[in-house]
Amino acid sequence: MTSSHDQPFGWALIGCGSVGNSHSRWAVATPDIEVHAFCDINEEAAGSYYEQFEGRYYTTDAERIFADDEIEIVTIATTHGTHAELALAAFEAGKHVYLEKPMAMTSADCMRIYHAMQAAGKKLMINFSIRFSGATRAIKSRLQPAKVSHAQVMLGREDLTRWQWLPGIGGGPLFDVGVHLADLLCWMHDSPPVEISATGGQVTHPGQLASPDIIDTVAANIRFANGSVATYLMSDAGFSEKLTKWFFTFNDGQQSAVLDKHFSRATITTPDPVSGELTTESYSPPFIERMPLLVDAIRNDTDPYVPAYPGIVATLVLESLIASVHSGQPQKVELPAELNA
Ligand SMILES: NC(=O)c1ccc[n+]([C@@H]2O[C@H](COP(=O)([O-])OP(=O)(O)OC[C@H]3O[C@@H](n4cnc5c(N)ncnc54)[C@H](O)[C@@H]3O)[C@@H](O)[C@H]2O)c1
Questions:
Q1: Ligand 1 centroid from CA 135, angstroms
Q2: What is the mean pLDDT of the chain?
Q3: The domain at 131-286+318-340 falls in which architecture?
Q4: Which atom number of ligand 1 is nearest to the Cα of residue 42?
Q5: What is the DSSP string of 222-287?
Q6: Residue range 248-273: mean pLDDT, rounded
Q7: Which pLDDT band holds residue 3 (cuts at 50, 70, 90)?
Q8: Ligand 1 atom 34: the closest Cα is on which residue?
Q9: Which residue among 13, 19, 291 is best mutated to probe the pocket of ligand 1, counting the most ligand atoms within 8 A of its Cβ?
Q10: Choosing a second label site near 285 at 20 to 30 A (CA), which of 58, 206, 307, 332?
Q11: Cross-strand bridge partners of residue 279
Q12: For the chain, which residues make up each domain, given as ranges?
């Protein structure tokens, strides 16, 4: 069923921090969006976004956004520990939601969001940024589902007092950056993960983090339902000029691809079917516009470009990585039965 909604959608941002700035620019640049309000628990942050991007008001009270009938789409770009409650409240108030990653910090909370979304009959898009890169999309469209991959993110010189490293609020770099690898691997392999074997823990900062549960380094193997496999490396051990912060290789058994330069460049190598001679080409197409993808999904009543399912699966992967690191045992990854239907 398509929507008869032909007016712009009223939009509000909750979380006027660094990534909230990008969301605001995208909203302003989308003709189908009318900027209404900015919310942050830090009043100065909300006020400065209102000054910069305009709209009707700013507030420190998310309830005001939820109670505003003229706001139809809410972008949530807050600290990780607040995603679940804010997204639930947004759906209960009948809003469509553009939610930052991770969808939530536990798969149970992801499922609560999923059920609230279904009950509301509204749309949810997750901001797994790497999927919106033209280079990533070139690899996805040129290769068959990956058979063998490697994904890594290497942070350097982290401030360990940032909220991202704190338990409950941030959860550590797995929830901040490692979640992108989890999602991208599942997407490129086009198959749910079934088993994860991981090692690591506090390798670079033993005993220096806010909680013994926070992990600074993970090296893992992932097996997918279709038999394909990947290696996964996340650490704050520092990146190099050659292997930059984000680095990925995908191989479908014929072609291979490297995604690098902050996921802006795809280098694809293809063998000639007869001679076997290799041809290598690099592409750096632009990112696709994100807000129109959510607006289209609302108008056409289709799944958004990055819907709830990958958000749930990515958090499940993190839970399995953590359980494997702490137990020293491989973990089976079991999707909630209703997602397999
Ligand atoms: N998709 C990406 O590529 C990408 C990149 C960076 C950050 N992020 C994500 O964006 C989110 C925000 O990250 P950031 O780097 O912008 O952080 P930030 O610290 O710069 O901003 C977070 C903002 O949220 C506000 N906030 C916290 N709790 C709130 C609440 N309950 N109600 C209203 N406001 C609240 C804070 O005051 C702060 O202004 C995180 O989920 C992060 O993982 C995504």
A1: 26
A2: 96
A3: 2-Layer Sandwich (3.30)
A4: 37
A5: EEETTS-EEEEEEESS---SSS-SEEEEEE-SS-EEEEETTTTEEEEEEE-TTT--EEEEEE-PPP
A6: 97
A7: low
A8: 40
A9: 19
A10: 307
A11: 270
A12: 9-130+289-307, 131-286+318-340
Q: pLDDT band at residue 244, thresholds of 50, 70 and 90?
A: confident
pLDDT at 293: 98
For residue 25 the two structure tokens come to: 């620019």
Q: List the structure tokens of 202.
A: 């506090």
Q: Is 295 in the pocket of ligand 1 (CB under 6 A)?
A: no
Residue 243 pLDDT more than 90? no
Q: Do 260 and 246 contact (CB within 8 A), yes or no?
A: yes
Q: If 0-12 CB within 10 Å is exposed, 13-18 middle and 19+ buried, where does residue 278 land?
A: exposed
The pLDDT of residue 6 is 82
Q: Which CATH architecture has domain 9-130+289-307?
A: 3-Layer(aba) Sandwich (3.40)
**Residue 39 tokens, joined:** 């919310």
Comparing C-alpha atoms, which of 121, 120, 99 is closest to residue 110? 99
CA of 119 to the centre of ligand 1 (A): 26
Distance in Å, CA 14 to ligand 1 centroid:
9
Query: Per the structure block, which two tokens stand in for 33?
Result: 């969006």
pLDDT tens by residue, 277-336: 999 999 999 999 999 999 999 999 999 999 999 999 999 999 999 999 999 999 999 999
Ligand 1 within 6 A of 16 CB? yes
Spatial separation of the C-alpha atoms in residues 274 and 282, rounded to whole Å:
22
Q: How far is the CA of 127 from the centre of ligand 1 (A)?
A: 12
**Cα–ligand 1 centroid distance for 107 (angstroms):** 20
Q: 269 has which bridge partners? A: 256, 280
Q: Which atom of ligand 1 is nearest to the CA of 82?
A: 31
Look at the block and give the residue holding tokens 């941030």.
170
pTM of the complete model beyond 0.70 = yes
